[in-house]
Every structure is written in structure tokens, then in C-alpha cells.
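Sample pair:
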Amino acid sequence: MSTALITRLASWNLGYSYQLQQLRMVHIKKIVPQLFPSLEERLRAMDKTLKDPELYKPVNIGLPQPKLSRREEVRKRMEHQKKMKENKELEKLSRKRLLNIPMEEVEATWEVTSGPHHLCNLAEHYGIFKDLFGLAYFVPRVPLKISFDYDEEMVTPVYAGNFIKPREAQLPPEVNYNSNEDTLWTLVLTNPDGHLVDNEAEYLHWFIGNIPGNKVSEGEVVCDYLRPLPPRGTGYHRFVFILYKQEKHVDFSSLKRDLPCHSLEQRTFKTYDFYRDFQDELTPAGIAFFQSDWDSSLKEFFHGTLKMREPSFEFEFPEPYLAPQKFFPKKRFFQMYLDMHRDPKEIQKEILLKRLKKIHPFQKEPELLPFPAAVPLPVDMPRWMKIEARKERVGIGKYRNLFRGNHRPRDEDRTL
């Protein structure tokens, strides 16, 4: 074979392999799926705090942590453990499962050790620091014990996010905390979720300033107490108690409201602006909060006390999407398909008329069949009619309103 022929065949093979390689690359590019960013990656891209972490770094505005000697703390802990191990009576009670742990002492120890950090994490979880102080936070060094007197026998305490109904918090609560007599404090109760006009504002429910020690009753009433009033349909509202420690006597005359204050407009409040104006005199020291939603007692309060119409909110659900109706739908039960495209009010009217035909206005409703789904149907009845008849007997689907209250087939009798 000549050299020219061999050279020609080699060049042809190289060209063919190159074209085949190009086709293979095009084919591979077509079948490689397009990779979209995950939800975590999208959230990170939207997080503006990652662009400049120092600018958006949270700031602690609370009281400083008391500095304890690590050596002294370890020494006390070792002495306590040694003392417990040498106590034979405790060991004997523990072995017999008769040892009673004093929960009051455990709670008191928790309040001064890990309790403040737990409350800080809870407040951050509920978004309280973000909504009240922006990028600032604080560790509540002063434990707050707050309770509402519902009646002579019942007391409703405030913990950290527990649920309290408005009827249980009609009167000002009893507030207790440990402090020296020569200190001054400020107590503020706000609702960051309930403003009817401005989403960024709050309603001021209570403001007591210049409290000597822990004697809340002797403090200066800047704004009197207002019971929780979450409007109907707005879900749960957060009500936050913030205890501030004062550096000196503070003049709150610019914040004073009418006593009693029954105007929601006058109770408009912003904790962020308030702390910015008084940050040199006040330091957040304690926090407690609860959640509350609407109850029937608020109706009379809005009309009788606030002299206004009761606000009510409803969520407007978007209408479900329905594909254009087809003349011959395939693989669909046509009776269910037709009901999907009917007016729901028309269906309800049809079911109501069926129910009215079965009952008498002055007699008891007819007895139900013991096993309605087991009653045989005519053999020549079409399958779709059998399904509808069984649904009507057991009262499921659109036929649920055929029966009222407990006068309906049992769950174990509804097997079609």
C-alpha cells in the first residue's frame, strides 16, 4: 500500500473521530440537567447580613455578666459534690427511690445560672429582639415573676410564651423581682403584633417608671394598664414585659398619656425609638412574655370601653385553580368532574333540600341504619350511581351536611 494512501486513510480516520467526538459532546451537553440553586443557597444569597457581617453584628445592650473566678467556682462545685457523696442518708434514700428533690431550690439555681441564657434564646426564637430592638439583644439578668389574678382562687402566671386569654388578664398583673431599695426601675408592656394601622408600630399596654426597688405600686404611672385586645381573626399576639434598670431618676413627662387612656392612637409606641432616646439612662434587665388571641370578652370591651367598632379580619383564600372544562374528560368520574365545575352554593342547596325532605319539624329524625354501607343496591344500577348512593348513606364528601351533630353514621360503619 502506498504512503499517500496510508496518509489519506489516517487523515480520514482522524476527521471522522473528531466529528464523532463533536457529536458526542453535543449529545452530552443536551442530556446534562440544568442545576438550580437549593433553598439554602437562595436564602444565603438573599441574606444581606453576610455581605458585611460586622455591620449587622448583634449588639448586647443588657447588663454585664458578673465576673466570677473560675477557680472559686470549680472549688465550690467540688466541695458540694464531696459533701453529697459523704452523706450516707441521701445515698440510702436515693437507692430506695425515696429521695425528694426540692424544685424550689432547683429553680432558684437555674434562674442565676443558665436561666438567663435560656430566656434569651426563647426571646430570639419568638422574634422579640428583632421586632423591638432591631439588631440588639440582651441577656435577662433579673428574673421576672408576673402573674394575673383571674379570680379569688385562680392565678395565671406569665412564663416565656405561654397562652393567656384576654379574660384572664383584665386586671394589672402582680410583678415581683429582686432588687435593692436604692435602685430605680422601669416596666413596659407592649404588643408588637396588634397595631391596626402601622405594622412597624406597637401598642403600649402598660408603662410604670421610676419604680423604687421592687415596689411597682409606688412607681410613676406613665400609661395605665390596658388589657390584651387581639382582634378577631389575627391569631396569637405577643405581649412583652421589659424591665429596665435606671441609672438615675428619669423625666418621662414627654411620654405621659391621659389617665385613663382609652385611645389606641395615643397608645402607639415604638420600643426602638424609646430606647434610642433613653439609652443613656435605661438598661434592659428582665423580660417575660405571653401569647393571647381573641375571645368573646373583647366584644363588649371594644364597644363599651374603647367606644369603637370591634375590628374583625378574615383571610381571603385564593380560588382553587380549575382547568377548562372538557366535553369528554378521560379517566375521570364524570359526576365528580361535574361537581368540580358547579357552584358550591348550588350543591349546598341541593343537599339541604334532600335533608329537609327526610326530617319533620316537630318529630325526631329517623333512625339510622346500623350498617348503611352494607345494604345491597340494585344489581342493574350503574357503578357511578352506586358510589353516589353509598356516599349519601354514610354521609361523606358533599353529603356530610345530610346529618347533624351526633346523629350521623359511626366511623366504623363508613367503609364503602
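The chain is about 35% helix and 15% strand.
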